[in-house]
Design goal:
CATH superfamily: Tetratricopeptide repeat domain
CATH class: Mainly Alpha
Strand content: under 5%
Distance between the termini: 39 Å
CATH topology: Serine Threonine Protein Phosphatase 5, Tetratricopeptide repeat
Largest sheet: 2 strands, antiparallel
Strand order of the largest sheet: 1-2
Order of helices and strands: HHHHHEEH
Number of strands: 2
Helix content: over 70%
Shape: flat
Number of helices: 6
Structural class: mainly alpha
């Protein structure tokens, strides 16, 4: 699979950079390949590991994005309660104050989220959570 090889090359490059944020970002992106090929349980594990590694190596913005990505993978694997908690974690991380983007940027809907773009991203996290609740039949 070409996309898998692409992310494997990315992980090597990220590792060579010595910047932990690049490593967890690349691993998280690779997790979406797993979701796309119906291996969401593996994606959940990969994202959980990335979130743990990101605690000391990544900005609050990237950790928020990782939490939201983890929420998506958890939803894909039918882990409702855990998914909602991950979305809440993403929102709570953004509420902690200053957001510094000192690593990889996060691209959503062709918009680069950097310092100063907290409110639109927080709104997106809340929308993802609401869509998920609607899909599982909760108010």
């Amino acid at each position: 699979m070409e996309s898998w090889r692409y992310y494997e090359q990315g992980k090597v490059a990220a590792s060579e950079s010595g910047v932990g944020a690049f490593e967890v970002h690349t691993a998280a992106q690779q997790a979406f390949v797993l979701v796309d090929i119906d291996r969401s349980a593996e994606a959940v594990n990969l994202l959980a590991s990335a979130r743990t590694r990101a605690i000391n190596s990544s900005s609050t913005l990237l950790r928020s994005w990782l939490a939201a990505a983890h929420g998506e993978a958890l939803a894909a694997s039918q882990q409702n309660k855990e998914s909602l908690q991950a979305f809440d974690d993403a929102s709570n991380l953004l509420s902690k104050g200053a957001i510094v983007s000192d690593g990889p940027y996060v691209v959503l809907d062709s918009v680069i989220w950097i310092v100063g773009a907290v409110m639109p991203w927080q709104g997106l996290v809340n929308q993802l959570r609401s869509v998920y609740l609607t899909c599982v039949g909760q108010p």
